[in-house]
């Protein structure tokens, strides 16, 4: 963990652990349901990346905005989404966030500031820039946190959006979750530069690279970027270096990486690192940690049972929201 631990209260640190356990439990349940044929289409899991989502959202206010990605369950949970409505959405039920129409890659909760996951690689980046412009024109002190992956860093929207945000000093935090692979393409083969964060130099804004499996490091970086943005100093590019244990999607056979590589990253598991810190500093006992873990899995099971009991959408309502 970070040598310089942020000024977080014991309650906030426990909240971080609760969030990370809930993300892990949710993702594992979705993986199980997909294998049983209860979740259709595909899904993209972020098991192993929990610290980035949890740490980043802990550093923001409830009235701030986020844009997400196709791998966005953790972002939704960290932003305070209702687990029951999330699970219902994945199972295609009427009670889901998007009435069962969006599924895994399109969950949105506008009321909480979650402007939605996005099935288009890099699709949330220009949306976040537009949100930043809206915030500035309204004279608000909110910020928009934009999640995207290393693959999206090579999309045109990445360069165009950051350039616009920089010249207009927009309150946007561009947070790249570098999990080492854009689908099966290693980030080392996809770009010549050593880091994604160093691209910030081209746009005259700060760029910072952090350990994405260190929840405190992510928190510190996003908190600093948010303070800059609220002060009218413009955007920041943050690269959080992390790793997904599962494949890109459920159709991924994982032939492009070795088991040894996956095991090496699992040794740096973000939840294990946080629980070790909490024990070592007498902030939580092992028994308390285990209770928190059990509570997270129980909450996910309750969400699943809610979804099972929820009604299917009425076929006659299929075109609602399609035509104005």
From TrEMBL:
<dbReference type="InterPro" id="IPR050642">
    <property type="entry name" value="PDH_E1_Alpha_Subunit"/>
</dbReference>
<keyword id="KW-0560">Oxidoreductase</keyword>
<keyword id="KW-0670">Pyruvate</keyword>
<dbReference type="Pfam" id="PF00676">
    <property type="entry name" value="E1_dh"/>
</dbReference>
<dbReference type="InterPro" id="IPR029061">
    <property type="entry name" value="THDP-binding"/>
</dbReference>
<protein>
    <submittedName>
        <fullName>Pyruvate dehydrogenase (Acetyl-transferring) E1 component subunit alpha</fullName>
    </submittedName>
</protein>
<feature type="domain" description="Dehydrogenase E1 component">
    <location>
        <begin position="19"/>
        <end position="315"/>
    </location>
</feature>
<dbReference type="InterPro" id="IPR001017">
    <property type="entry name" value="DH_E1"/>
</dbReference>
<dbReference type="GO" id="GO:0004739">
    <property type="term" value="F:pyruvate dehydrogenase (acetyl-transferring) activity"/>
</dbReference>
<keyword id="KW-0786">Thiamine pyrophosphate</keyword>
<dbReference type="GO" id="GO:0006086">
    <property type="term" value="P:pyruvate decarboxylation to acetyl-CoA"/>
</dbReference>
